Amino acid sequence: MAKVLTPQNEDFPRWYQDVVTKAEMAENGPVKGQQVIRPTGYALWERMVSGMDDRIKATGTENASFPLLIPHSYLQKEANHVEGFAPEFWTVTQAGGKELEEPVVVRPTSETVIGEYMAKWVQSYRDLPLLLNQWANVMRYEMRTRLFLRTSEFLWQEGHTAHATYEDAHEFTLRILHEVYADFMERDLAMPVLRGLKTVEERFAGALNTFTCEAMMRDGKSLQMGTSHELGQNFSKAFDMQYLGSDGQQHLCWTTSWGTSTRMVGGLIMAHGDDKGLRVPPRLAPVQAYVMSVKDGEGVSEAARALHDELIGSGVRSRLNDRTDVAFGRRAVDAELKGYPVRIEVGPRDLAEGKAVVVRRVEGTKTPVALESVVKVVTEALEADQQAMFDEALRFRADRTVAVKTVDEAIEAAATGFAQLPWDVCGVEGEAKAAAKGVTVRCL
Amino acid sequence: MAKVLTPQNEDFPRWYQDVVTKAEMAENGPVKGQQVIRPTGYALWERMVSGMDDRIKATGTENASFPLLIPHSYLQKEANHVEGFAPEFWTVTQAGGKELEEPVVVRPTSETVIGEYMAKWVQSYRDLPLLLNQWANVMRYEMRTRLFLRTSEFLWQEGHTAHATYEDAHEFTLRILHEVYADFMERDLAMPVLRGLKTVEERFAGALNTFTCEAMMRDGKSLQMGTSHELGQNFSKAFDMQYLGSDGQQHLCWTTSWGTSTRMVGGLIMAHGDDKGLRVPPRLAPVQAYVMSVKDGEGVSEAARALHDELIGSGVRSRLNDRTDVAFGRRAVDAELKGYPVRIEVGPRDLAEGKAVVVRRVEGTKTPVALESVVKVVTEALEADQQAMFDEALRFRADRTVAVKTVDEAIEAAATGFAQLPWDVCGVEGEAKAAAKGVTVRCL
Ligand SMILES: [Zn+2]
Ligand SMILES: [Zn+2]
């Protein structure tokens, strides 16, 4: 059989592009840098939204919806912010057949418009903390784009909070980093993440500090999976976000913002995929068990449906594929590509012995299992493989992380993995030197 | 106590505006016609998304995500479509600091871009039906706007499907109308809806037929709650959406599209609200039971929390309000405004007798209930009030619907409710005559 995908060690970016296309995850949109997310890719994102949303709500944060278009004047109110984002603006100049009096920008992020409204809603210390989040699309102009990883339009959540004190804002920034982001990435995505500070150079435009979750991809490179920003009083000053304290005085709020996006789908692919395609961790997987009729035969279709129903009844997210009009080999390759954790193949020969074959995507094992034991075997496999994927990713990272003593050693080590170097050895100069070689300081 | 809201029968639109503002549902955005949906309003929308999404998926439809910006050239491919929507375009002309070569339009709806991709994905009759949906934001320029009801930007779902035959497309259009839209509106929103065809005048731009769900508001007027369109082969011709049939010949697909939006939130408010504010049907309600500490006192806070925990444990969506630093009266008025179905008031005096007061929003009753019976009483009230709200809305509509024999009678009847008139009596001329008096033919 011809190789479906370019092997990872031959050309990793090409492998990534192959998986995204052939597993029907996404395609380029008609306008530069935009993407069409197909059902297979979107179902992963929906599960991410669900896992993240539960954790976000558990912090007391409520969802809301702010407008897509932001007046240019709002974006200018915080100097570093506009300087950082202006080159990426998509600008609406016409509406209803007329030129607009003031051009409006498709939101690249919503600190400014949300700042304007928070300033109205926050009056007294009793209104704080004000904890908001929105699930939305944003646009940033990009010259070079890659599906899921860097696109002009992407889907994301952006949290925005206002607090009475520096300490409260600081703690909330870290709570999001650890309890929401890292917890979701490690437990649901089975991706170990490094958590720490971004350098001044890599910080969000307008922030005091940016905290990040960084994960290692299968090419040894790092991907930024989510960031949580301490905005200090920069935006509360710009939008005059004041509250009356219990001391009867007016005070400026302390704000935070934090975001994760469809880029996580790209990270998931690159952290767990192999030369056969995607591998989806069971806890995240929209389809955990994929029940296939191998070919037509006495009772095959009925047995496949019965297993599917039994799996659903036991709380397993099962999908039935009964399309015996499509060659079995082609359907099996497609199932590997899409990375369903467990496949159950129901064919006439095994069925005659009262069995079906359970194929595990992570281990690659194919085991004939008595029909009455399938649900138990599948349930245990899903549990075990979630842990196995995390352990494997952790080992992979450990094997490719070295402690180094100089910037030159760090640059060399970064070719195959992560390098750990004390910041007082590296410093801003070391960062610039590394950057010239295409190596970035990811996490302090 | 001063009236919080303008009474409905004094000025219905003003009442609506008061509820939206004072129940903290939504506000105007900074750019014309846009809206900020606040947590109280957004939580209703989230529950609508959830109830609708389950029903949409039950039809076999999968979610996907298509780009926000559509090239102008795509929109021009279907003549009636572009003619209908062009006056409402919001147009992006600049990105990344440069003028775009081709202006792009913020999607007013996505038939065109989805048509382009479906044409690629559909090759053979085996690929049909192709059933897609997206949850997204769209923009249409509007001169006169009202929060939730008519806004320049709104959130919605838009379904787009391709079928092999006219019959299959026709049946799917009706399945969405009845099994998804009307079923959700009647069961979850407790809003009876009339289902039928739109006139040629009111039809979607580019459709063969538009089916609608129409609900009566408390001012006797109709609101279009959702529409399902048969697009025939108009878009498959425009985007060359062909498939190879089992007969070895190429055929054009038959397509449908269907949508519901945040306008449903406005409909919910206007169908069920009263002079005290919103009334939310229990099945939809994000907060079904609202447990309040009346004031500080021996064991009050503990008892309130215990009831809240017990309700949550019994599957009731409960929220605890323990803010005794805010006057009880103010909190109670706010709870009425926001329309929580059941309120449980825990105060020192009742508590001393082992009781709490259960207040039902629909009936307006206040009943002291033994603590150990609260969960049972609340659960039964939620069940009963869902039905009571539907029955009330149905009676209200029946009382305000008259069968008439002439267009003049219909115009007169429309001042206070619905008029039923045979279409062969009305016709296009009657429709034009009624339109001149501000009366529209809503549903055939
Ligand atoms: Zn102070
Ligand atoms: Zn034919």
Compact summary:
With 444 residues, the first copy, chain A, is an alpha+beta fold. Helices cover 38% and strands 26% of the residues of chain A.
Please tell me about this protein's structure.
- Two copies of one chain form a homodimer.
- With 444 residues, the first copy, chain A, is α+β, with helices and mostly antiparallel strands.
- The first copy, chain A, is 38% helix and 26% strand.
- The first copy, chain A, contains 14 helices and 21 strands.
- Chain A has helices spanning 12-22, 39-58, 72-75, 79-85, 111-121, 166-187, 234-238, 263-272, 300-313, 328-338, 348-352, 374-399, 407-413, 423-436; strands at residues 26-28, 35-37, 62-63, 69-71, 90-95, 98-106, 130-139, 153-163, 194-197, 209-216, 222-232, 242-244, 250-252, 254-261, 289-293, 318-321, 342-346, 355-360, 366-370, 401-403, 418-420.
- In chain A, the strands form six sheets. A seven-stranded mixed β-sheet of chain A has the order 3-7-8-14-11-10-9, sandwiched between helices.
- In chain A, strand 5 and strand 6 (98-106) form a beta hairpin.
- The longest helix of chain A is centred in the C-terminal third of the chain and has 26 residues, at 374-399.
- Chain A is globular and about 80 Å long.
- The model of chain A has no long low-confidence stretch (mean pLDDT 94).
- At the A-B interface, strand 2, helix 2, strand 3, strand 4 and strand 5 of A face strand 2, helix 2, strand 3, strand 4 and strand 5 of B.
- Strand 5 (90-95) of chain A pairs antiparallel with strand 5 of chain B.
- The structure holds zinc ion (2 copies).
- One zinc ion is lined by residues 245, 247, 249, 251 of chain B.
